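Notebook, bench 3.
Goal today: get a predicted structure for YhfM-like domain-containing protein from Rossellomorea oryzaecorticis so we can plan the truncation constructs. The sequence was checked against the plasmid map this morning, with no discrepancies at the termini. Length recorded as 201 residues. Pasting the sequence as submitted so the record is complete.
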Amino acid sequence: MRRFRKLLFYLFILFTILVTGCSNELSNEEQNIEVRERSDYDPNKYRNLKEISNNEQVRQVRDILNDAKWEEKIVNMTRLADYRFTFHFKNPDIEAKPVIYELWISPDLDTVEVIRGQREYTQISEQNSEILYETLTGNKLSELEGRMGMGQNYEEALEHVYFFNRASDLEPEISSEDAKNEWIDRLKDLREQGIYLGSVF
């Protein structure tokens, strides 16, 4: 009986070494990252954005994700992810089901949140969010606010909107102040959904 237990112990050690070795070999294999973004025309669909094949950039993204503090929980977001990305081995002989990473830009436009495989959630630090976002999209997160229109200062933006409080034969049904407050509230709701007001000029 003792000899049998010893045999099982050695088999377990051998199995652990083999699994660890295979895992290390796979982790050293070169990978690409396929990035997709939410469509401007249909927010329920995604379109191909880019493929990252630079080994240094792939390693940088992997390191940021590995260093993040992941929580095992299901998070219900208010909108679909702004971006999705997956890792793929460059070696076609390696078959592995890719894990889908979903990325959201935070309402304050300074950090990103990521869900891995639907059951793991993390909020990336501000510094790493900037690096991760730029690597995946080619754009700077710190410049996103400016492109989204007046830094989301809605009261300032309203100064650039012409407001007509009556038509030729209709009495106004709402005051200028009430219209302003309602306009700001609606824009804030849209922002929570990932829809931003921007300038066309």
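The chain has two domains: 29-146, 148-192. Residues 15-26 have pLDDT under 50 and may be disordered.
Flagging this for group meeting.
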